[in-house]
Write a structure and sequence with these properties.
Helices cover about 65% and strands about 5% of the residues. With about 475 residues, the protein is mainly alpha-helical.
Length: about 475
């Protein structure tokens, strides 16, 4: 047994169809099928008490060229084990059961035929009250509606729980990427195809076929096609051996299909499992998945692609290790590699600045300070750090050499944080060098507000006049004019 364990549940986009299918199956089993056990017990009681068992066992032993008196002797000695053994063999003999139902075993020429026919009809009428008989798929007399209704019936609690577990596992892996409509279609179509594939090899079978196994097998067939060569984690269990493995998903398609076909060949009539329904479901699921993939109808194809490789994580780990070992040059090179892959990586930006400020005369220090201040200015939650970092930089650098584009935003933050003098020096210097630089009107507007807030009305008025003179068409100039009037 190989079970996928790669699926990840997201409550933002939960697999609603999978959950709904599970709930429907549970409701049908505990609700609509709740009386089936009583119907079966009533039918079996009739089978044993009416003498029907004796008649059919007698003919079964003659069919096998054995002495029917074996049953009489077993009954006289209360040897229930012998009787049960023959009963299991008789009900497990598909050829005998088919011939018995066709009337080839007990014919009108037999003396016990009238009694057998009456008792058999009563027995079948009692069994027919079961949900499985009414709504299960029967190959020899199939009805179109039972191709769907059979998918929601189960033969026991273990059958139900096993199927629902696999439905949940495969549903979490497939539904988010396929989309709800296509996932539901895949499930139902695979189940129907599984029933039809079983009927193709069992045309005379009157045993009702029930269970979601064929539909779930369709999910098994779709998974290798959709995930392709992507390596997927699986739990494997082979009786004496179990382990977790990671293999290309596509490799499981021939394995799963081969296992079902081999099980049918090797166990066939000796098992109550419809292996060919599973095989048909796998084939149908694989074909549907291939069609959806080819037509690009999947809702989120990237869900089936390998996750992006984390290149930064290992680099960051090594960089921090080098930093802890005081190997600053190696750490610096690693942080630069991280920033080449992700220029906005906050940890790398901060640590590179801390390393570079040890050599304030180097070009790297100005570059690192520019990165760091740009990062802080772009995040309002980090604005409290800006004045301290900027003052530290000025003291270490002597003559600031930051990128010109950062100065207007930097001045605005300094003004907001109660440092209008520093902001005014920046604005004055930038207006002399690049008076048309983006962001200057905003910086002037904030500077005017900062001066007004500290009670320096003359400086505030000067900023507003300068704003209206130099940038009269800016929104800040119009806002300043309205506020002043």
């Amino acid at each position: 047994m190989i079970v996928p364990i790669t699926g990840r549940l997201s409550w933002r986009k939960p697999p609603l169809v999978t959950i709904a299918l599970i709930l429907i199956n549970i409701f049908v089993f505990f609700g609509l099928q709740s009386e089936d056990r009583a119907f079966v017990q009533d039918a079996w009681q009739h089978y044993f008490d009416s003498g029907l068992m004796r008649i059919e066992l007698d003919h079964y032993l003659r069919y096998r060229n054995e002495d029917p008196s074996i049953i009489q002797t077993a009954e006289a000695q209360e040897d229930h084990e012998t009787i049960n053994t023959y009963l299991e063999q008789m009900f497990g003999d598909a050829d005998f059961q088919q011939r018995l139902e066709r009337g080839d075993i007990i014919s009108p020429e037999d003396s016990d035929y009238p009694e057998w026919q009456m008792l058999r009809q009563e027995y079948e009428a009692k069994l027919a009250r079961r949900s499985a008989w009414r709504w299960g798929f029967k190959s020899d007399r199939w009805q179109s509606q039972t191709l769907l209704t059979s998918l929601f019936l189960h033969g026991g609690l273990g059958h139900l729980l096993g199927n629902m577990l696999f439905l949940w596992l495969f549903g979490c892996m497939l539904e988010p990427g396929m989309g709800r409509v296509y996932f539901l279609a895949l499930y139902l179509v695979s189940g129907v195809c599984g029933d039809l594939f079983f009927a193709l090899f069992n045309l005379q079978s009157s045993t009702p076929l029930i269970g979601a196994s064929g539909a779930i097998a369709g999910l098994m067939g779709a998974l290798p096609i959709l995930y392709g060569r992507r390596r997927v984690s699986f739990f494997c269990y082979f009786g004496f051996y179990f382990n977790y493995i990671k293999i290309p998903a596509i490799a499981l398609l021939p394995f799963w299909l081969g296992m079902e076909i081999w099980s049918e060949i090797s166990r066939g009539d000796m098992s109550s499992v419809a292996f060919m329904a599973h095989a048909g479901g796998i084939i149908a699921g694989a074909l549907q998945a291939g069609l959806l993939k080819r037509l690009q109808w999947l809702r989120d194809p990237e869900a089936f692609q390998p996750p992006p490789t984390d290149e930064i994580g290992p680099l960051l780990k090594r960089a921090m290790q080098r930093l802890g070992e005081l190997e600053f040059d190696r750490a610096r090179d690693l942080f630069l590699q991280i920033l080449a892959k992700n220029p906005s990586h906050g940890v790398a930006i901060t640590q590179l600045y801390n390393i570079a400020k040890q050599q304030p005369g180097s070009p790297l220090f100005h570059e690192a300070a520019g990165r760091y201040l740009c990062d802080l200015v772009s995040r309002p939650s980090a604005w409290d750090q800006v004045p301290g970092v900027y003052n530290e930089y000025r003291q270490l650098a002597g003559t600031p050499r930051l990128p010109m584009a950062i100065y207007p935003a930097l001045a605005g933050v300094l003004a907001d944080k109660g440092h209008p003098e520093s902001a005014a020096r920046i604005v004055s210097a930038v207006m002399k060098k690049q008076p048309l630089l983006d962001g200057l009107p905003t910086a002037l507007f904030k500077l005017a507000g900062a001066f007004k807030k500290t009670g320096r009305s003359a400086q505030a008025d000067q900023c507003r006049r300068l704003l209206q003179k130099r940038y009269p068409e800016s929104p800040e100039a119009r806002a300043g004019s309205s506020a002043h009037s």
